Amino acid sequence: MTATPLRVDGAAASGTAEFTERLRAVAAERYHDRHPFNLRMHRGELAPAELRRWIANRFHYQRHIPVKDALILAKLDRPELRRSWLRRIQDHDGTAEGEGGIERWLRLGEAAGLHRHELWDGSRVLPGVRLAVDGYVNFCRLHPALDAIAASLTELSAPGLMRTRIAAFERHYPWIDPDGLAYFRTRIDQGGRDGAEALALVLDLARTPEQQQRALAALEFKCEVLWSLLDAVDGAGAAGAAKEGRT
Ligand SMILES: O=C(O)c1cc(C(=O)O)c2c(n1)C(=O)C(=O)c1cc(C(=O)O)[nH]c1-2
C-alpha cells in the first residue's frame, strides 16, 4: 500500500477554531482518566496485585508505541515531519542501552515488585489488552497518516493525568519506590509537546469537513482503545488477583 503524501503548506483550513474545540472536547470527555479503574487508582483503592496487573498489561501498550510510531513514520514524506516523529521513537527506545521510556517502565515494574522478564515475556497480558493494543497498531498501519496522527491526540489530556497519577502513587502507594515514577514525570513534558505537535499537524492536514470528521472519529477510536484496555484490567478482578497469587 502506498502512503498518501502529506501536504503541509501552512494555509489555514476552514473552521479551525471550532474543529480544535471539537478535538479537545473528545480528548477531554472520552479520556480514560474517567475510567472506574483509574478512579479507583487515584482514590488509593487498588490492591498491590491489581496495580501490578495494570503495570504488566500497560507494558504491552508501551512496547508497541514505538512500533506504531514507526508505521506512522513510513507515511511521512518530508524530512522535518519524519525528524519530529522519529524523536517519539527515541523517547521510548532511548538512544543507548538503559535509556528511554520503555526502560523507565521496566523500572516502574521493578519498583512494584515485578521482574523485568515478567514484563518482556508477555505472560501476564490479558486477552482484551492484547486485542486493544493490536487494534491501535493495526489502525495506524492501515489508515492514512491523518487518522493515525489524530489518534495520538489523546496525549492532549495525558499530562494532567500524569500529575494526578504521580500524586496518587506518592500518597496511596508508598510501597512503590518513588524513583519508579520517573516514567510518569518524564511524560508530563513529552506528552505536552507531542500533543501540541500532533494537533498542529492535524489542523494542517484536515482541510475538508470530511477529513475533519475522519480525524474526530480516529480520536474517538483511540479513546475506546484506552478504555477497553482498562476494562480488561478491571474485569480480571479479585479472581485474577487470586490466580496471580499476589494480593
Ligand atoms: O498513561 C497514560 O494514561 C498514557 C496515555 C497515553 C495516551 O493518552 O494515549 C499515552 C501514554 N500514557 C504514554 O505513556 C505514551 O507514551 C503515549 C503515546 C501515545 C500515542 O498514542 O502515541 N499515547 C500515549
Task: Explain what this protein looks like in three dimensions.
It is built from twelve helices and no strands. Residues 1-11 have low confidence and may be disordered. The protein has 247 residues and is an all-alpha fold. It has one domain (27-234): Up-down Bundle (Heme Oxygenase, Chain A), CATH 1.20.910. It is globular. It has helices spanning 16-29, 36-43, 48-73, 79-93, 101-111, 116-120, 127-142, 145-151, 158-172, 182-205, 209-235, 237-244. The structure holds pyrroloquinoline quinone. The site of pyrroloquinoline quinone has 8 residues, from helix 9.
How would you summarize what this structure contains?
The protein has 247 residues and is mainly alpha-helical. The chain has a single domain, classed as Heme oxygenase-like (Heme Oxygenase, Chain A).
Detail the topology: elements first, then pairings:
Blueprint: H1 16-29, H2 36-43, H3 48-73, H4 79-93, H5 101-111, H6 116-120, H7 127-142, H8 145-151, H9 158-172, H10 182-205, H11 209-235, H12 237-244
Helix pairs in contact: 1-11, 3-4, 3-5, 3-7, 3-11, 5-10, 7-11, 8-11, 9-10
Bound molecules: pyrroloquinoline quinone (PQQ).
Family: Belongs to the PqqC family.
Protein name: Pyrroloquinoline-quinone synthase
Organism: Streptomyces coacervatus
Question: How many strand segments?
Answer: 0
SSE arrangement, N to C = HHHHHHHHHHHH
Q: Kindly state the percentage of residues in helix.
A: over 70%
Could you tell me which ligands this complex binds, including any ions or cofactors? pyrroloquinoline quinone
Structural class: mainly alpha
Mean pLDDT: 92
Strand content: under 5%
CATH superfamily: Heme oxygenase-like
The CATH topology corresponds to Heme Oxygenase, Chain A
